């Protein structure tokens, strides 16, 4: 039997070797494709992480700046109101009649011929009793 087997010619030896080489070539390409895709996705993941982190940091900083802006605007409005009150006081203090009236009320100064009577406040009387 062994003689019969040896007599059978091997057909398509080149085709078989070509198919094996082609199979090896395809496996290598597939392996390289997987490596390239893995590297690409790692790169995309790193870039995405960096961008998301940057956006989050900028959003946090923006919120802090907006809070500061609100505080500063509130402070500005308060200062502006105080400035208006002070301007009104300046105009009032330039009037001699107002200055005289103010001095009589606050410092108990009197005009000629006036007598000032000091009347205690009710709150002071209640605390004494």
Account of the protein in words:
The longest helix has 81 residues, at 13-93. The chain has one domain. It is built from four helices and no strands. The model has no long low-confidence stretch (mean pLDDT 87). It has 129 residues and is mostly helical. The protein has helices at 2-7, 13-93, 96-107, 122-128. InterPro entries: DivIC, FtsL/DivIC.
Q: Which structural class matches the secondary elements? A: mainly alpha
Order of helical and strand elements: HHHH
Helix amount, in percent?
A: over 70%
Cα(first) to Cα(last) distance is 139 Å
Q: Total number of β-strand segments?
A: 0
What does the overall shape look like? Answer: rod-shaped
A few lines on this structure:
The protein is an all-alpha fold and 129 residues long.
Write the layout of secondary structure elements.
Layout: H1 2-7, H2 13-93, H3 96-107, H4 122-128
Features:
129 residues, coiled coil, DivIC, Putative membrane protein, single chain, mainly alpha, 82% helix, transmembrane, 4 helices
């Amino acid at each position: 039997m062994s003689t019969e087997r040896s007599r059978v010619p091997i057909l398509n030896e080149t085709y078989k070797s070509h198919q094996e080489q082609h199979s090896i070539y395809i496996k290598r390409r597939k392996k390289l494709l997987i490596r390239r895709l893995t590297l690409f996705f790692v790169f995309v993941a790193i870039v995405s992480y960096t961008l998301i982190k940057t956006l989050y940091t900028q959003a946090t900083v923006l919120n802090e700046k907006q809070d500061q802006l609100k505080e500063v605007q509130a402070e500005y409005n308060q200062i502006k109101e105080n400035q208006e009150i002070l301007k009104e006081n300046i105009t009032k203090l330039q009037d001699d009649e107002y200055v005289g009236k103010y001095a009589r009320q606050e410092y108990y100064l009197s005009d000629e011929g006036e007598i000032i009577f000091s009347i205690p406040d009710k709150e002071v009387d209640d605390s004494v009793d």
